[in-house]
Amino acid sequence: MLEIKVLLIEDIKMVRKSIINMLGEDYIVDEAPDVETAKLLLSSKKYDIILADLNVGDKKGVETIEAICDKAKKTPIIVCSGCIDKDVAIGLTCKGIKEIIAKPLEQNRLRYTIQKVLWKNKFSFV
Question: Could you tell me the pTM of the whole model?
């Protein structure tokens, strides 16, 4: 069975635990409750995908993504957030975000979106 390495950037512990439960045994998840922890993990490990909330600690919106993009390199990022407007979505797309999922998350949609992004990333030549 292929295990997918995920970095989960979410400041609310209960939400992190819920997402980990949704993902199940096929995913190896490292948790980052803040951007600084995420950057440290990205410096020392390679991930297949990053799941990131937009508002983490003192970072808000696109600022959160900008803070991790340099360390994330080519790792695809999926944003999971409860508050996304059109302008923010456009800004995220310009930053290279692969998908945006609105909270509350639903298990099948989350797992499907991860698989879709990984598949697209595997066959991307850009």
Answer: 0.89
